[in-house]
Design brief:
The protein folds into 5 domains: 126 residues, CBS-domain (Roll); 91 residues, Beta-Lactamase; 175 residues, 3-Layer(aba) Sandwich (Rossmann fold); 82 residues, Helicase, Ruva Protein, domain 3, CATH 1.10.8.60; 50 residues, Arc Repressor Mutant, subunit A (Orthogonal Bundle), CATH 1.10.10. Helix content is 46%, strand content 18%. It has 25 helices and 22 strands. It has a 5-stranded antiparallel sheet, with helices on both faces. A 5-stranded parallel sheet has the order 13-16-19-12-20. The longest helix is centred in the middle third of the chain and has 31 residues. It is elongated and about 150 Å long. The two termini are 90 Å apart. Pfam families: AAA_lid_14, CBS, HTH_8, PAS, Sigma54_activat.
């Protein structure tokens, strides 16, 4: 690399712009005096048009003096051969070869017919020597910065180069070993074997001293068929070896941790963790438990925010499948990237593809569960490809030629009416029946309002724990408002509203003015529009009290003291009401 830089030097890089020009009519005496006054030993003769006629040296003029010739003769009479010139753009090595060929030591440099400088053999040599010095310094720094240690020996085994890296590895200083025979320090060195065999030796494991490890390679260097040196590279792998041993010793711990994490995940996403005690949610959990044990495809319906992914994860967890649960939101992937995301791609499949290719979501879910959320948003062309994958149990990467066998259970979810989409032609009928082997329709929060207090308690506790907050008390009127709100966003909206309640609670109490504006506005509107179904005051009071007691008891996790405090009544009054209304499940 550095040697190529020498070839790139031009005459313009090294020429001397200090020069003496005299007209060819000038005489020798003038030339000698001019050279002495300018401390130069050459002079360039030009004609009236500034064209170079010759180059004369101080030595040439001294010959004239020794021959006792007339020093007043014109200098052009001394010219005996045609002048050879060069240009600034010419390579310096070419100029040197030109001078060597013509047995001359100088070349005038011409630009647009006029002389602008002169290049001498010494100029070229000085530049070369200077660059060699630079190369030597740079090479030393490069070798010392390498992670590998480098050693070079001559054919007799004398150490010519000993880098900082190898100095550190073997704890032998450069000053001690350079210029001495390697065998004095390392009698069994790999380099000595290479010198004897004249054959390369690669990747030999070696421990130069206790607790230190290296990988060594050595090769002979030949020029013109003759071995002139041998070089070894010693890569210190002590840190890697120690790390490998540490990893090996911690493998059992990692296995134990993996088992524990799996247990935690199973608990987190199990049916036991599905929130709710209402009859309708219990029924849906029972349906999901039954289908979990089969490999049948499941389609989960329901409004947005009803917990479709929670159910999908619980089904996967209960299925006992060994592979992972891989979720993909069909509405969040650009249509142009859908196929590569689902099926992956091979190296160079398209512009911008990773060099090593990429595994797709379907293949990633092998032996596990693929959850296709918002399946109704899958493009039609992808529906046909997805159907083929489900039928053939094989996936073909984009740009690939070999199909890959897969074992994937598919659970889909949507808030849209797929039957209507089939009728409209926006969803494939054959794929619909393939996905809809078992259908589970999750209820909205409006259909399970008795679960709101349970969600309220859980979400408040989780949010306060995450943010290091005290769990606040809840005013009974707040619970009543939450129970009557329609929750168009279902559980997701409820969770966001509860975070709002905690953030804006005052004196660690959640009051009516802590509610989000949309909930308060809906309550006011409902109060204006709602007409009682029955005008029986006693019946309305009874229903209201029963609903409020149920909500408070669920929110207090059946703790009667807490429930009484939430409703702002004595505990004795709560006991009386429970007995009066026959609410035995809370007694």
């Amino acid at each position: 690399m550095f040697l190529h830089q020498l070839d790139q030097y031009t005459v313009g890089d090294i020429m001397d712009r200090r020069l003496i020009k005299l007209k060819e009519e000038a005489n020798s005496r003038e030339a000698i005096n001019t050279m002495i006054s300018h401390n130069l030993d050459d002079i360039i003769l030009t004609d009236e048009t500034e064209k170079v006629v010759a180059v004369l040296t101080f030595k040439d003029l001294m010959k004239q003096i020794r021959s006792e010739e007339d020093l007043t003769k014109p200098l052009k009479d001394l010219v005996s051969q045609k002048v050879i010139v060069s240009t600034e753009e010419a390579q310096a090595i070419e100029a040197r070869n030109l001078m060597k060929k013509n047995h001359i030591g100088r070349l005038p440099v011409i630009r647009e017919g006029k002389v602008v400088g002169i290049v001498r053999v010494n100029d070229i040599l000085n530049k070369v020597y200077s660059k060699i010095d630079e190369m030597h310094t740079a090479l030393e720094k490069i070798l010392d910065s390498l992670y590998e240690g480098v050693c070079v020996v001559n054919p007799e085994g004398t150490v010519l180069l000993w880098s900082k890296g190898i100095e550190k590895l073997y704890e032998v200083n450069q000053e001690e070993i350079v210029g001495r025979n390697l065998e004095e320090f390392f009698p069994t060195a790999l380099l000595l074997k290479t010198l004897n065999s004249k054959q390369p030796i690669r990747n030999v494991y070696h421990s130069p001293r206790p607790g230190s490890y290296a990988i060594i390679s050595s090769i002979p260097i030949f020029i013109g068929g003759e071995m002139i040196a041998a070089v070894s590279t010693d890569r210190d792998i002590t840190e890697t070896t120690n790390l490998s041993e540490e990893l090996e010793t911690t493998k059992e711990k990692l296995d134990l941790l993996e088992t524990e994490v799996k247990k935690i995940n199973e608990e987190q996403y199990s049916f036991h963790n599905v929130i709710g005690k209402s009859d309708i949610i219990k029924e849906k959990i029972l349906e999901a438990r039954k289908v979990a044990l089969a490999n049948s495809s499941v389609l989960i319906g329901g409004e947005s925010g009803t917990g479709k992914e929670v159910f999908a994860r619980a089904i996967h967890q209960a299925s006992g499948r060994k592979g992972p649960f891989v979720a993909i939101n069909c509405s969040a992937i650009p249509e142009s990237l859908f196929e590569s995301e689902m099926f992956g791609y091979e190296s160079g499949a398209f512009t911008g593809a990773l060099n090593k290719g990429k595994i797709g979501k379907v293949e990633l879910a092998n032996q596990g569960t693929l959850f296709l959320d918002e399946i109704g948003d899958m493009p039609l062309y992808m529906q046909a490809k997805m159907l083929r994958v489900l039928q053939e149990r094989q996936v073909l990467r984009v740009g690939g030629e070999k199909s890959i066998d897969i074992d994937v259970r598919v659970i889909s979810a949507t808030h849209r009416n797929l039957e209507n989409m089939v009728t409209e032609g926006t969803f494939r009928e054959d794929l619909y029946y393939r996905l809809n082997v078992v259908y589970i329709d999750l209820p909205s929060l409006r259909e399970r309002k008795e679960d709101i207090p349970i969600f309220l308690r859980r979400f408040i506790s989780e949010f306060c724990e995450e943010n290091n907050l005290r769990v606040p008390e809840i005013d009974a009127e707040v619970l009543q408002v939450l129970m009557n709100y329609p929750w168009p966003g279902n559980i997701r909206e409820l969770k966001n509203a509860i975070e709002h309640l905690v953030i804006f609670s005052k004196d660690n109490v959640i009051q009516k003015n802590s509610l989000p504006e949309r909930v308060l506005e809906k309550k006011i509107t409902d109060e204006k529009q709602q007409q009682p179904v029955s005008f029986d005051l006693q019946e309305n009071i009874r229903n209201t009290e029963i609903s409020t007691i149920k909500g408070a008891m669920d929110m207090a996790d059946n703790n009667k003291a807490k429930a009484a405090k939430i409703m702002n009544i004595p505990r004795s009054t709560l006991y009386y009401k429970l007995k009066y209304y026959g609410m035995k499940e809370y007694l």
